[in-house]
Amino acid sequence: MAGPAATGAAPPTLPVLPDEATERVLASGLLPELAHAFGGPFHFLLPEAFDTNLRGMREALASAGVEGFVYFAKKANKAAVFAERAAAGGAGVDVASVGELCEALGHGVRGEHLVVTGPAKDPALLDLAVRHGALIAVDALDELDALVALADGGPGGRIRPARILLRCLPPGQPHSRFGLSEPELATALDRCVRAGGALRTEGFSFHLSGYALQPRADLAARLVGLCLAARVRGLEASRISIGGGLPVSYTDAESWRGFLAEQHSGHYHAAKTFHTGDFYPYHSPVAGAEALAALLATRPEGHGQPLSRLLSDSGVLLLLEPGRALLHQAGATVFRVQGVKERAGYRILTVDGTSLSLSEQWFNSEYLPDPVLLPQTPGAERGTFPASVGAATCLESDLLTWRKIPFPSRPRTGDLLVYPNTAGYQMDSNESPFHDLPLPPKVVMDRTGLPRPRWRLDRHFT
Q1: Are 94 and 71 in contact (CB under 8 A)?
Q2: At a CB cut-off of 8 Å and minimum separation 6, what does 154 contact?
Q3: For the chain, which end, N or C, has fewer CB atoms within 10 Å of the first or last residue's CB respectively?
Q4: CB within 8 Å of 136: residues ≥ 6 apart
């Protein structure tokens, strides 16, 4: 007999799309051993998924007849293995700090395959970027002046020309803190012309929030026009960067529509409410490489041809900086259940980690894909057992999942809880050793096609 049921219908589920490699790891019997060995939560990484996603993006570019280059947005995951895979695959890495730049170099990424983004860059970061021939997205006029001074008259004389993109403020997002306004852009171009050999003005870039394809295509077309105008003034202007923003689909369309239609405050611990507009769009009709293909096929406003044709006819190289889209299905997060409390109609599980390992909670949102419960004792009671998931901290608000997840078996102390597909931004963006809890280690799963995958700890360059 199942335990107390939730009032009314069972809370809605949000099943994840199937992933063969993840399912093989879950079925291998390896996770309980790792949980015992580490004595706490951990993440497992699937680098072959990264390789597959990268290949898909390159194939989308090739199929559209577009010359392009992919940079992995390192902020999406701190693991060294993904920088290694980018280097091995001939891709670049998008960095925004001295630490990220050094780690990328230390794991084999060539300096010219780095792009340096972020606002108000540290002088030490600019110095390293110029010395290693990295491409720099210039976000402000004072940053541009610093690069001219650095490249033209640094200690000991000229280092080398600074390779730059001028980052433009999107007209549709005028309150963004990223990018040069129209007057600033005009001033920047004048300074680039005057700088001569101190700068290589290779093109333009933008930072655009959201996942809609049409605004991104429209802005990309505008940047192509800027390249053509800049060439008339003697600047190289051969490439544009459209950043990331390629959506990822975690679940199918029917499940996502059903979840949004059914969910209400009664499905969450303490009747917590979330604005559905704050949820990540966990289903997208086109995602990853398919979204890139759709973007290239989009006709920018005011143009009679798709973006792909506009790029190829203008001889403009397309740069991409995806993070989440390269990490789709590239890892998951594992917790052990430390305790179970009964509440009216549901349970509260406490696990051996914190919501700092599921970053969506820290954006007034919820990581919605259903976690997988792995019972660790035989004879687990079957039924529908709604449960929220709390963290091992002294904070009332520290829940990994406020939602009452309808588990198919009764959760017990010692069971494992696996949150799927967390490599993209979720598993380490906000982690900290709160309560002196150690940071969860990252385990790289190699050769997942074997009955029992091979594993190793992720190697960090220090």
Answers
A1: yes
A2: 127, 130
A3: N
A4: 115, 116, 121, 126, 129, 130, 147, 162, 163, 164, 165
State which amino acid sits at residue 267.
Answer: H
Q: Which residues of 308-338 are buried (b: 16+ CB within 10 A; e: fewer)?
A: bbbbbebebbbbbbbbbbbbbbbbbbbbbbe
**Residue written as tokens 């709604």?**
386
Phi/psi-derived region of residue 157, left when phi > 0, alpha when psi is between -120 and 50, beta in every other case? left
Q: Would you say residue 379 has pLDDT above 60?
A: yes
Helical axes 182-195 vs 141-153, angle rounded to 10°: 10
Span 413-450, pLDDT tens digits: 999 999 999 999 999 988 888 787 788 999 999 877 77
Q: How far apart are CA 71 and CA 54, in angstroms?
A: 10
Q: 270's torsion region: left (phi>0), alpha (psi -120 to 50) or beta?
A: left
Tokens of 352: 């051996």
pTM of the model: 0.94
What's the 3-state SS for 420-449? CCCCCCCCCCCCCCHHHCCCCCEEEEECCC
CA-wise closest residue to 205 among 162, 233, 244: 244
> Model confidence over 444-459: pLDDT tens digits?
998 777 778 999 999 8
274: Cα within 13 Å, side-chain hemisphere = 23
CB atoms within 10 A of CB 18: 9
Residue with tokens 């989308």: 60
